[in-house]
Specification:
Order of helices and strands: HHHH
Number of strands: 0
Helix content: over 70%
Number of helices: 4
Structural class: mainly alpha
Radius of gyration: 17 Å
Strand content: under 5%
């Protein structure tokens, strides 16, 4: 029972992380391509599970092996996220432009 507060705190921090703007934009852009609510739910679920497994594995490795992420790697990963968001934005704008022309 002593670990329950840690689990609850982890869950709440995870929910806070999941509602960051970059996550909301990425998921809404990807899900908006689906034609049905079921398809959108499936994509959102798979995205969430994939993200959770990745964070869990990396977090576990950091704790077990006492790893430290170098600042340069952190910045490089953040830059990759920024590029991904820009690509998603361009793809969305191109889709909107195509629908406006029709």
């Amino acid at each position: 029972m002593q670990s329950l507060p840690v689990v609850v705190l982890g869950f709440l921090l995870g929910m806070l992380h999941a509602t960051d703007a970059d996550h909301v934009i990425a998921v809404s852009t990807i899900v908006s391509r689906q034609r049905s609510v079921g398809g959108a739910a499936r994509v959102g679920l798979l995205w969430g599970v994939g993200h959770t497994v990745t964070v869990f594995c990396v977090g576990t490795a950091i704790i077990l092996f006492n790893l430290v992420i170098p600042p340069r790697l952190e910045l490089a990963l953040e830059f990759c996220v920024a590029l991904m968001l820009m690509v998603l934005g361009v793809v969305t704008l191109l889709r909107v432009r195509r629908h406006v022309r029709e």
